[in-house]
Structure formats: C-alpha cells, structure tokens
Amino acid sequence: MDTYVKLYLSTLIMALSLIISSVFASPSANNDIVVAIQEMERANYFTFVMLINMVPPSMFQGNITFLMPSDRSLSRTKIPQNSVIDLLLNHSIPSPLLFDHLIHLPTNSTLPTSNPDLMLKVSNSGRRGLFLGNVRIVSPNICTHGYLVRCHGIDDVLSVDIEKPEITCPRVSSPIPATTPLLAPTSQAPASNPPHADAYETSGGRRPHIELTLTCIVFMWVLFIVKSCV
User: What is the distance between the alpha carbons of residues 83 and 51, in angstroms, rounded to a whole number?
Assistant: First the structure.
C-alpha cells in the first residue's frame, strides 16, 4: 500500500511541476511574435517583416509557422494592398513546426495552411529537397527562440491556384442561330405561296376558290340540262 501511495504522490508532483514550469516559462504569444520578427530581421527577411507589420497584431496570436520568401522573390511579385492578408495566410501553417517535424512528412501528403481553401502538397527527397507546393525550404529553423512561432525561408513565392466551381447554364442540344428570334420557327414557308395559305387548307388538301369554281360549273350544267328537257 505504501508503494502505491508513494508512486501516486511522485506522479502528482511531477505533473504539477510540469504545469507550473509551462505556465511560468512560456512567454506570451505577443512576445513570441516580437522575438520571431527580430529573428527574421537578423536573417534579412525585411520585406516579410514589413508585410507582417501591415496586418492587425491580433491576426497572428502564435501557434504558427511562417514560410518566408526572400526579399528578392517578393520584390518580383505584385502584391495589392488588400491582398497582404491573403499572402500571409497562404504562407503560414497553423502550427509551430520545426524542420525536424516537417522532414518526416511523406511525399504526396498534404499540409494545411492558414487559408482554409489551400493545402500544400509535400514532396520529400531529404533535407535538401523538401518541397511544399512549388517552393523548397532553403533556410530552415530561422525562428527558434520562442515557443509558439516558427519560421523557415523558402526559395520563391507560393503559386496559388485555387479552383472554384464554375456556374454554367445548360446548353440546348440543337442551338438556335443568333440571328433567329428565340420563338421564331426554324424554317419559313416558300416565298411563292401566299401568306397564311396553309392555314386555310381543307382536310382534302384543296383550297376554297377551287371548290367554288367546280360548284358553279356543276350548277350551270344542271341548269342547261333542265332547260333542254323543257
């Protein structure tokens, strides 16, 4: 019984010591961002630091990994002022990952970014050939002094091509020529026929003026026979 009590107390003391040490030893998220920015500046990533300073400080509260293009790569990229946030979201991972964590990612696996619509495909051929999307990590572990922020240098700006569903109207199987009105018939009657002639055809296919002529001839013939008999 004493053995179990001692084991329980020692485990409890260890757990409490870990909790206390983590509370007092871990700096705040804001301090981690400040420390990470200082490390970026020492590594000459001044343009990326300028972009971070352009967004609200509350946007990045820690637990993040930045993928930083060099100043030369960013100078060749047109970045509208309203797209700075999107660029930072695309170039960050919502978890503090050292290079030793990233190197264990298998090829063809995917890594989420802070942009929920963008995933990075991993191509891993070793420490000198770790690609995330179209970029390669060339300067790993630049930000290491803090607990909640990590950053790595990459060789180019991420090429983002997010496919969105296209909204298309259904096509008609037999398209109507653009010059023809939508409700017009596709074929017109020959020009030699009088207008609306077909509308007056009888069931036998004969027309009214032909029937009238035949009726007159028959009537006159009957009248001639009657007169001759008289």
Answer: 10
Token representation of residue 194:
């009088």
| pTM score, whole prediction | 0.59
Strand partners, 111: 120
Q: Which residues pair with 124 in a beta bridge?
A: 130
Read off the pLDDT of residues 105-122 as tens digits, 9 standing for 90 and up: 999 999 999 999 999 999
Mention every residue, 6+ apart, whose C-beta is less than 8 A from residue 119.
Answer: 110, 111, 112, 113
In sequence order, what E strands does 22-109 have? Answer: 64-69, 92-93
Single-letter amino acid, residue 42: R
Give buried/exposed letters for 82-119 (b at 16+ CB in 10 A, else e). eebeebbbbbbbeebeebeebeebeeeeebebbbeebe
